[in-house]
Amino acid sequence: GAVVSQHPSWVICKSGTSVKIECRSLDFQATTMFWYRQFPKQSLMLMATSNEGSKATYEQGVEKDKFLINHASLTLSTLTVTSAHPEDSSFYICSPRADTQYFGPGTRLTVL
Amino acid sequence: GENVEQHPSTLSVQEGDSAVIKCTYSDSASNYFPWYKQELGKRPQLIIDIRSNVGEKKDQRIAVTLNKTAKHFSLHITETQPEDSAVYFCAATNYNQGGKLIFGQGTELSVKP
Predict the structure, then answer these.
(1) B99 CB near a chain A CB, below 8 Å?
(2) Is B1 an interface residue toward A (CB < 8 Å)?
(3) pLDDT tens per residue, range A91-100
(4) Which of B7, B23, B72, B103 has the fewest CB atoms inside 10 Å of its own CB, making it the most exposed?
(5) E strands of B1-113, at which residues?
(6) B106 contact residues in A (CB cutoff 8 A)
(7) Ramachandran bin of A73, using left for φ above 0, alpha for ψ from -120 to 50, beta for the remaining angles
């Protein structure tokens, strides 16, 4: 299956700062990357879909100016949480679109 | 859009017994149905998947059945072991329309030795 890496695996930041999460597809070219968010003891919720070379599409209720997504190459998609607040604390996971859907290892964000 | 309902939310079984988790979906155009196992603090791991042109798929102790008419699919785990304890998620998607996964609410499975 697809090999996906994420960096960092965990991050703690102060309220008001921005955090960038990188998602790399290591063994194939991902034209589309899905970004999911998972709050404690809840299911995964799709936040946005990033497409290489074009603007991301966001799910209803997800602020595009707060969660900036860049998909500059076929192997790298980034999610930046701008002006993070405690309610943004969550597990963020990426998944490249493929015939079989695998997930990156996830990034646990804690905003103090 | 698609909506996926998953039941039960918690399931406790004795080691060696079978466990069944059920999901229903709303969009008849969905054509790919994966199941994931998630251990605490880790990513969801794909354990089995099924496509709409197949009614059943089995992989050792794990099997999935799909009823397209009723729009429901189920995960069956036989001869459960304590290491099967985890949260299980079903999902559905239509690859012809983007491929984004819609997840069920999750089932916390506990296998008691």
Answers:
(1) yes
(2) no
(3) 999 998 876 7
(4) B7
(5) 4-7, 10-14, 19-25, 32-38, 45-51, 56-59, 62-67, 72-77, 86-92, 102-103, 107-112
(6) 42-43
(7) beta
Name chain B contacts of A104, Cβ cutoff 8 Å. 43
Residue A1 has pLDDT above 70, yes or no: no
When pLDDT is cut at 50, 70 and 90, the band that residue B99 belongs to is confident
Which residue among A46, A103, A105 places its CB closest to the CB of B100?
A: A46
Which H/E stretch holds residue B55?
A: none
Structure tokens that stand for A85 in this block:
């607040």
The per-residue pLDDT for A37 is 96
Pairwise CB contact (< 8 Å): B34 & A100: yes
* Residues of B whose CB is below 8 A from A103: 36, 43-44
Torsion angle of alpha carbons A48, A67, A78, B87, nearest 10°?
A: -60
Report phi then psi at B90, rounded to 5.
-100, 160
pLDDT value, residue B32: 93
